[in-house]
Amino acid sequence: MEAQLKLYNTLSRKKEVFQALNPPFVGLYVCGPTVYDEVHLGNLRQFTSFDIVYRYLSFLGYKVRYVRNITDVGHLSDDGDEGEDKIERKAKANKIEPMEIVQKYTNSFHHVAKLFNLIEPSIEPSATGHIVEQIEMVQRIIDNGYAYEVNGSVYFDVKKYLEKHDYGQLSGRKVEDLLEQTRDNLEGGDEKRFFADFGIWKAASPETIMKWNSPWGVGVPGWHLECSVMSTKYLGQEFDIHGGGMDLKFPHHECEIAQSVGADGKAPVRYWMHGNMLTVNGDKMSKSKGNAFLPMELFEGKHELLNKGFSPMVVRFFMLQTHYSSTLDFSNEALEASEKGYARLMNAYKLSATLPSSKQNTEETDKEILTLLDKLRLEMNDDFNTPKTIAVLFDLAALINKINDKSVFVSEAVLSKLQADMKSFVEDILGLHSETKDNNLAVDKLMELILEIRSSARENKDWPTSDKIRDHLAEAGIKIKDSKDGASWTMN
RNA sequence: GGUCGGAUGGCCGAGAGGCUAGGCUCAGCUCUGCAAAAGCUGCUACACCGGUUCGAAUCCGGUUCCGACCUCCA
User: Fold this and answer.
1) Are A472 and A480 in contact (CB under 8 A)?
2) Alpha-carbon distance A248 to A218, whole Å?
3) I need a labelling partner for A447 at 20 to 30 A (CA). Which of A135, A252, A330, A404 fits?
4) pLDDT of residue A79 exceeding 50
5) How far is it, in rounded angstroms, from Cα A276 to Cα A490?
6) Integer distance in angstroms from CA A1 to C1' B54?
7) Which domains are assigned to chain A?
8) A333 CA from B3 C1′ (Å)
9) Is the CB of A84 under 7 A from strand B?
């Protein structure tokens, strides 16, 4: 393992050492949600994966400009270039403005993002806010000969593009395969000249609500275009990292590359990162299978597949126990296991702040801790390996507990490094925070008093009183832990 | 049908030629009035069939199954 950050680049299908284009700056673009409905749990996982990327790059000292868009127009309900705009369809069904739909689900997305402790992007641009730029990009593509207009729509000319460039290198698609489809599809009478061509500007029908004037008539931008436009505008023609779900590799990301090359002659992205999908009890999560639940349903336990609710931080922790590039399976059992593990880890984390240091017998433990702290960095450097990082944190948790039990000892210098790193990795990098309610002074005083009464009851072996206090507090969500040094308490 | 990825212990999940991943569960023990918490100990797995190698969960070939995207058919 290296001391340098390595990440898996979909483009080369290899782990590569990360080298920023213009250090210390890093440009990070992530495909955001289409706000026609509540954010999907699978979406949330992608955002969490890239939240980690953002957090870790920042930890390493990079100044990251993180752009995550909001798709509020142009994403069609059926794959391909036919079909209706997802947002517009929903708006018509509810007899409200498309922008009301956009606002509603944008708000709801932000709410969930906050619960999930996702860091807000530096810029969150929307497609409708960049119509002018999209029209300009379409024009540049036409000017360069890579697009043609038919009946007010503009299509990207893949065949033309293939003469000089590679189309399909990101997703591993072969040009010949695409060409083979051509013969059948050319007969179709489609506006497109070639099966693989894709719309970058679509003529709008009179009924369409959201539409704009353009040199080619009234229309709407194609879905793939917005990401090219907004990443170029805010991160430049070439930037560092572009992320998104696996399912976006083709055609979405492939089209982005073609558009940027077509418009500006440059491949836009140095490192492409793709997160994997979600399954439920081993099945693909999908609405048609009835096994898709929403983030809020998961938090509240309001779904028939869920035995109970799981707090946002538990779900976040659960997600991070799987590498972003692997499929992640949701099940009650797995979630419950994570819930317990999470509590244990956070407990140790809290404990780490109050550990005693020692002046002797610290050598072995010091060394062990230092090794583990180094390992935290090595694991994160290895393509953001959060599961391994968490495994190391558990090793540290075991040591923290031992130090607390005074079975091993740590020097002051190593202890303060341990405390600093625990904070960095648990809170800043993994983005986990304690979910216990903020205590106020009155509650603290109250608990101090109650525990004092209980303690004297216990000295008198008045077990009924002692247990009554413990049980009643437990009902109120306050847990008492007895130890040799007296009792402590936690509240959820 | 095409492209890509995957199959790991009771469950979840890392790893990727020799070295205990980790979490949860379960059992036993220590501590304890009881419980909880914490600690200790135990539970040795890599879909199947071949091959390469001193040595393979890890490499190669094949088989089966699963997933994503694309396509075809209906």
Assistant:
1) no
2) 28
3) A404
4) no
5) 36
6) 27
7) 6-275 (3.40.50.620), 293-429 (no CATH), 441-491 (no CATH)
8) 34
9) no
